[in-house]
Amino acid sequence: RQHEGPRRVKRAWVIPPISVSENHKRIPHLLVQIKSDKQQPGGVIYSIKGPGVDEEPLGIFSIDKFSGKVFLNAMLDREENDRYRLRAFALDLGGVTLEDPTDLEIIVVDQNDNRPLFQQDVFTGHVVEGAEPGTCVMTVDATDADDPDTDNAALRYSILDQGTAGMFSINATTGEICTARPGLDRETMGVYNLTVQAADMSGDGLTTTAMAVIYLEDINDNPPEFTKEEFSMEAEEQVAGVDVGKVFVHDKDLAGSPNWLAKFTILEGDPEGAFAIRTDPHTNDGVLSLVKPLDHEVRDRFELTVSVQNEQPLEPAAPSSPRALATVRVRVRDVNEAPVFRENPRRISVLEGTPPGTPITTYTASDPDTHQLQTLTYALLYDPAGWLQLDPHAGTVRTKRELLHPSAFLQGGWYIALLLARDDAEPPLSATGTLSIEILEVNDHAPQLQPPTGVLCGRPGRGGTLLLGATDEDRPPHGAPFHFQLSPQHPQLARNWSIARFNVTHAVLAVLAELPEGPYSLPLLLRDSGTPPQEQQQLLNISVCHCGREGTCQDGVLAAATAGAGITLGALLIILGSTILLLVLAALGALRVRGHRRALRKGLLERSGDDMRDNILNYDEQGGGEEDQDAYDINQLRHPELFCPRAKPPLRRDAPLSSATPPGPRRLPNSPSDIEDFINEGLEAADSDPSVPPYDTALIYDYEGSGSVASRLSSIVSSLTDEDQDYDYLSEWGPRFRRLADLYG
Question: Where's the Cadherin domain (predicted)?
Answer without folding.
Answer: 12-118, 119-226, 236-341, 342-449, 464-558
